[in-house]
Amino acid sequence: MVALHEALTPAPEQVALAIFGAFHEREETLVLLGPHEPGFWAHFTASAEYQDGQPDPLDRWSRRIITRLAEDWGGAPVFPSDGPPYAPFLDWALETGQAWQSPVGMLVHARAGLMVSYRGAVRLQGRLDLPPPGTNPCRNCADKPCLTACPVGALNAQMEYDVQRCKTHIAHPEGSTCLTQGCLVRRACPVSQAYARLPEQSAFHMRSFL
Is the pTM above the cut of 0.85? Predict the structure, then answer.
């Protein structure tokens, strides 16, 4: 089989994206893409989509960039916002062997930790040679700080995410740290801390969440 990195020219890192996993689906290969750090935020904020003042700049940027990559690679782009029906990105992520369910329920990624996000995927013809599966970082995480990081218990060991409690907290002054620097649970993960995502990017996502 052809190695995955040999088939993907230009490399996604040239446009501040990284391969967050890949897997075979029948006679096709699906490649999942996420932000390449460090450097993603600077690349995105220099784009026309970020600067034009129109809604959904990150989704629009992702669609333009990943569609172009798919054309160059001879594949078809897929996006989380396509639908309904929506593509099962969470199931796909687990299928890659690079992401797992964390102790608080959300996905944890071998490289991005709890900061994992998928900007899109590319469906390629043929079964390309895949990278070896990763190692679940939670398996060797003795302290599991994610379990106690949320100040209002919106994310916890019961794997029940209380969305309204989370939103209420970050919308008030006592939740300003979560709003301006990112979710404390995501930031508590040791792998997240090594991923180099800037606080400005986390703040952007938190504002969108509200």
Answer: yes
CA gap 6, 145 in Å, rounded = 38
Q: Would you state the pLDDT for residue 50?
A: 97
Residue 5 confidence (pLDDT): 80
Residue 35 has pLDDT above 70, yes or no: yes
- 160 has a pLDDT exceeding 90: no
What CA–CA distance (Å, rounded) separates 78 from 63? Answer: 9
The Cα–Cα gap between 76 and 40 comes to 23
